[in-house]
Every structure is written in structure tokens, then in C-alpha cells.
Amino acid sequence: MRRKIAVAVFLALIVVPSFVSAAPQDDLTIWKEFVQLLKTDALTADRVRPASPLTPESQLALLRDFAKNATWEEWEAAPEVVRYGNLVSFIITLGQKRNSPWSYTFNFVVEDGRWYYRFLEGIFIRLDKVGKLPADASGFPDVPEERKDWMRQEIYWSEQVRLFNFLAQEKGKDIAFRWVAEGIGNGVGYLLGAATWVPFYPPSRAFILYLCWEQAKLQGNKVTLEKLGENEAVVRFDDIQYFALYMRTSHLKKQISLDDYIKIFETIWQERARAAGWNLKIDGQGRQIYLRFSR
User: Fold this and answer.
1) Nearest Cα to 232, choosing from 281, 162, 177, 181?
2) Quick one: DSSP state of residue 143?
3) Rounded distance, CA 52 to CA 114, Å?
4) Burial, 139: exposed, middle or buried (Cβ in 10 Å; 0-12, 13-18, 19+)?
5) What's the predicted TM-score (pTM) here?
6) pLDDT tens-place string over residues 130-148
């Protein structure tokens, strides 16, 4: 259950003939009222009912932050509506004026004739489009690969943070970071993978090349190899998902401080670099991260 909450992926449970893309007038009224309240900063926590353990206050703060730079003409467009019982979801594309269009779901529950906001999500699976149920899962709709990369990363790092917090509480932070280095970082194992899967170069060089491939092709990150020599290498990450997760999800900020989250990242790569015979300097903590290797 926790994983479903952490990932916060929209799932429509059952498809029935009443699902339509044209919005009924009463549902459009919900959306218009919601947008107006948000636009005027009049939406209050008593109109928010998220899934446990999320709190109304946290979800309202997240929503307000999300809407800070809103282009309200986009919000005021008629959304696609999916209703199941008292659950109503609105699908709308935002960010077109900034040349970064993305479709989001805004999810509500209606009780005693009154709507309550639940959550918004930028990743959702159109299981409302499956057709007649039960159905063979091989026919379920897919999502773009980059969104699946994000889902995998969110699931993975949410679990790793949970384990880190457990160890820190039971054994102390020093032991927790040692586990990060030897477990997640696993420098010897990472180097072995590089040396065997890229057997055409000495291990230290194979390590740099494998790092770029593994992060780009397995982890879905944007990676650029800026320099590669015998004694120096520079790898650049752009919008690395590890840090994007912390900034764009609500649950990680509650579970771990930014300083500890950064230290986990640095501990992992320092351990891997050490095992491969490299010294490592990490520059940047925002949209661009540089791994500067030297020997």
C-alpha cells in the first residue's frame, strides 16, 4: 500500500460504459471552481482529502508551489474527465506556453455533493482505456519510456531512503552511510560489472564508459562524457532524476533532509570511484552535476 502511495500513480480500477471523454456539466463545474480557488489562493486545507499517510497541509502546499508560475489560460481549458463512482479525475496538458507540455491528472472525491481535492500526478496509466474486464495484461496500455524510468527511480529511491532511515535510527548514521557505501555503492561489484561488460579497455577506463552507459541506458539519466584521458575524466549529469525526485515529490522531503540525501549520492559515487582507482570531486547540486575524476 505504501508503495502505491509513494509512487502516487493514477489507476482507474474498472472500466464501465459510462466512462466518456466529454465532461459532464457538473464535473466541469468542479474543475472551474477548483481552478478559481487555486488562482485566487482561496483553496483551504479542509477541501483537501489525500490518501493516508499524506496530509491535507502537505498536499495543499505542494499544489500551491506547483501553481506558482501557472499560465491560467491553460488551466481554464476544458479537461478530459474520467469518473468512477464518487472519484473524479481531470486530465489536462500544462506547460505549452513554456514549450514543455506535460499531461497531468488532478484527482478529486465527491462526498455529500461537495468535492475535495486529493492529489495531482504527472505519471498515470490509462487503465480506464483497457476495455472489457477482466483482460489479459499483455493488452494493457503502456506509458512512454522516460516516464517508466521516473517510476522505477521513485520506487527504488523511496525504498532505499526507508532502509537508510531504519539503519540510522537503529544503528546510527555512521553505520547507515557505511551501508550506503558497501550496499548501494558497492564499488567492487560496480567495477566488476564495468570490467566484464566492457572488456575492451583497462578497468579504470571501462569504469568511466560503463558509468555513462549504465546511467543513461539503465537509469534513464541525461549523461554527457565531457572528457576522457588516462588521468582525467569529466562526466556531466543534466536534470539527474535522483535530485529531481527530491524536488518534485512530497514524501522524500518529509523522510530525509536534503543534506543527508546529497550525502547518499556523494557516498555512492565516492565509493565507486575509489574502487576503480579514481579520485572524485563532485561539483553542483542543481540541474547540472559534474563528476570530475583524476588520478
Assistant:
1) 281
2) -
3) 20
4) exposed
5) 0.77
6) 877 777 777 788 999 989 9
